[in-house]
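debug: dumping io for the single-chain case to check the tokenizer round-trip. Nothing else runs in this session.
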Amino acid sequence: MNTLKMNHKGSAQMIAHRGVCGLERENTAAAFVAAGNRSYFGIETDIHETADGKFIIIHDDNTQRVSGDDYIVEQTEFDTLRSITLFDRKSEEKRADLVLPTLEEYISICKRYEKIAVLELKNKMKAETILQIAKTIEELDYLESTIFISFALSNLVALREAYPQQQAQYLVEKIENMTDLLETLKKYRFDIDAKHTCITEEIAEEFHRNGIKINVWTVNKVEIAEKLEEIGVDYITTNIIE
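debug: decoded output
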């Protein structure tokens, strides 16, 4: 099995969602390296704070789905979470090499393969937590190659106050009030990361008129990706398409 190939007729950059999670267990070094070895522009992942103030890479609030072990991520200490081994993507067989990555491991893989890091700040975080994450990436000399995304607007506002030039995209599932959304994005100089069903040609044109770049998630059908590229989105986040 390999990735699906689309016929690129535009300039949309492809983002590997949780790594190439259509091939490897999501949010693992294996999935990130699979993206690194392919043509992706960026590698997306998710970060949580642990109970002891450290950071771990995982999407869900609970480890059950990916490992069978029932731990609430933000109520569990780092060492316990790190000791878990994860299921292979295609089975409930655990693989010794599949563990929850650290922030440093994720950034190091992005850096090694020269991929943009697209980092989702999961859940609402304290400002000092967000700044600690940013500082860690800055110390790894990769902040300029990182895009922060979050559904929690306050996370991105805290980031913006400390890092005025940092790339950031506001995650949305619906666009209910375009005027208010545009006002917020322009005020804080955020781009948009929207569920792909939200984006029409007219909406894409409106964002671009206002200088806002468009990322869309999560697109796994080639024909939909090609249509979105045709209407001018800037980034396409996908599990499997190149």
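debug: round-trip ok. Residues 13-238 form a domain with the TIM Barrel fold (CATH 3.20.20.190).
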